[in-house]
Amino acid sequence: HGLGLNHANAILSKNGLPGEYADSADTMGKSNYRGHYNAAAKAWLGWLPAGKIATASVDGATVAVQALEPSVSGIQAVRIPVPGSTGEEYWVEKRRPIGSDAALPPILTADGVLVRKVQTYGSTAPKCLALDASPETPSFNLGDGALLPGRTFHAGEQIHITALWGDDKTTWIRIRLGAFPSNQPPAILSVNSNPPQWGSTFTFTAEVQDADGDPVVAFWNFETGLAAQYAPGSYSTGLTATHAWLTAQPGRIFVTVSDMKGGVTTLWKDVNGFVNVPPVLEKIHNWPILLPDGMAADGWQIFVPKVQDGELIAYSWVLPDGTVSSLPNPPYFPSQWGYAPVTLTISDGEFSVTQTVDVQLNQPAVAVVDPAYQEVKPGTSVTLSGLASYDPDGFMPAGALKYQWSAATPGIVLNGATAASVSFVAPLSGSVTISLQVTDGTVWSKKVYAKVKVVP
Question: Are 117 and 128 a contacting pair, CB within 8 Å?
Answer without folding.
Answer: yes
